[in-house]
Amino acid sequence: MKRILHIDSSLFSGDGVSSTLAGEYVARLLEQNPQWRVTHRDLGRNPIAHLDATRLTAIMTPEADRTAEQRTIAEEADTLIREVQEADLLVLGVPMYNFAIPSVLKAWFDHIARAGVTFRYTAEGAVGLLEGKRAVILASRGGLHRGQPSDTQTDYLATMLGFLGIRDVEFVYAEGLNLDEGSREQAITSARDAIEQLLAA
To answer: Which of this chain's residues are annotated to bind FMN (predicted)?
Structure first.
């Protein structure tokens, strides 16, 4: 039985285009594989706290030495890591905000990137410990950015996932959503066509 970790990061929660496309992709996967299990996190509806000194100290403090507050914080971070470790496939709905990924998604990455757990340092550099997993990114943008210097998302996400050991990464783009109604419809249709191609592969 395979497990899917579905992460949405739109400020509009399930109403965002990236969330809609990610939800459609997961639903189609489940039609093909009804035995698969899904863990869904909507970071727009239930955001993860951004990493700060208090949270980092709690995570880095040895378990036996943690205060009650630190144990709660560390358990939250451990749960996020466990969800990724148990997943075979990550499906990320990622809108573009000001040329970057949503800050709530950055907070998620900050909590799951932990030395000795999801990556380790070696004499040759860092090695990801989440190998053997696949990721599909459903990326929505108001303008046209793919292949342009303004697209900071694609390289960041591929680099971050690769750093953790996830190198099998596919991107589906819905771009030009805010140019006009025709462009919006075309972008969503093109993204849905790309999803069908992924499902057929």
So the answer is: 10, 96-99, 140-143
Kindly write down the DSSP assignment for every residue of 99-124, as one continuous string.
TB--HHHHHHHHHH--BTTTEEEETT
The per-residue b/e assignment along 163-199, b for 16 or more CB within 10 angstroms, e otherwise, is bbbbeebebbbbbbbeeeeebbebbbeebbebbeeee
Q: Please state the domain extents for the chain.
A: 3-200
pLDDT tens digits, 33-90:
999 999 999 999 999 999 999 999 999 999 999 999 999 999 999 999 999 999 999 9
Cβ–Cβ < 8 Å for 6, 40: yes
Q: Which residues sit in the known binding site? A: 10, 96-99, 140-143
Binding site as annotated, residues for FMN? 10, 96-99, 140-143
CA distance 33 to 190: 24
Work out the mean pLDDT of the chain and round it to a whole number.
96
Spans of the chain below 50 pLDDT:
none
Radius of gyration of the chain (CA): 18
